[in-house]
Write a structure and sequence with these properties.
Rossmann fold, globular, binds adenosine-5'-triphosphate, binds magnesium ion
């Protein structure tokens, strides 16, 4: 569904990603792991068309390098950025409507209902300003907002960041559910290797903008040496 081949990218003259190749199967979850500064966020921004890149980024076989971020979103790529991308002065409902701004079908209200059922903690706060939500609720809103696009591919930048383990587990469980119901393909960027390997079927480890390890998530998680030297748990 998504394939990066030899992708290099950076900020201005500063290169960050060096010939990164990775893929996400249709309906699969791929994890990208790595320490602070490894290039995880840069990988996601590059896929979204926010940074110039060389190499090939293909969605369902079509190269999207050079396309605008708006065009890439319209191809069905939704992004939950590391700052969650929530408009804190807008209400929960207004944030959800913004997530659907590219849609022209008549099912937007139905989808809002669906996410409020899935995320009951948002339901009672539908008319509250998003800035007043707890961290976990904001992450649920960010996820719902991205899903309002009805994406084919969901790019998630550290959904566990700053959240208590119990809330992280809740969010990963919701992700699993939505992914299965919608047949979504997910690229999950995480420092929380343990949780990410539980949800994903394939994983890549980035170091200084390069893929240094990749494999089946289950194999990586069950290899003590790899866990200790690359995954830090
Ligand atoms: N806007 C920017 N301008 C210049 N350099 C940047 C910019 N954003 C990130 N970088 C650099 O790119 C490298 C990779 O950063 P990136 O944010 O992709 O890492 P990350 O793996 O997401 O880290 P973290 O786990 O801390 O979020 C770092 O060396 C960082 O300093
Ligand atoms: Mg990051």
């Amino acid at each position: 569904m998504l394939r990066l081949t030899g992708v290099s990218a950076g900020y201005g003259k500063t290169p960050v990603l060096h010939e990164v190749s990775l893929s996400v199967q249709r309906g699969g979850v791929t994890a990208v792991l790595g320490a602070n500064g490894a290039g995880k966020t840069t990988t996601i921004r590059t896929i979204c068309g926010l940074l110039p890149a060389t190499g090939e980024i293909a969605i369902a076989g079509k190269n999207i390098v050079g396309q605008t971020s708006d065009r890439i979103a319209r191809l069905g790529v939704a992004h939950v950025p590391d700052n969650r991308g929530t408009f804190i002065d807008l209400t929960v409902r207004e944030n959800l409507l913004l997530g659907a701004h590219t849609r022209r079908d008549g099912e937007v209200e139905g989808d809002i209902e669906r996410f409020l059922e899935l995320f009951p903690r948002l339901k009672s706060r539908i008319h509250q300003q998003a800035g007043n939500l707890s961290g976990g609720e904001q992450q649920m809103l960010a996820l719902s907002r991205a899903l309002m696009l009805r994406p084919q591919i969901l790019l998630l930048d550290e959904p566990s960041f700053g959240l208590a383990p119990k809330v992280v587990a809740e969010i990963f469980e919701l992700l699993r559910k939505v992914k299965e119901e919608d047949g979504l393909s997910v690229l999950l960027v995480e420092q929380n290797a343990r949780m990410a390997l539980m949800l994903s079927d394939k994983a890549y480890v980035l170091e200084s903008g390069k893929v240094v390890l990749s494999g089946d998530s289950r194999d990586l998680a069950s290899d003590d040496a790899i866990r200790k030297s690359y995954l830090g748990y």
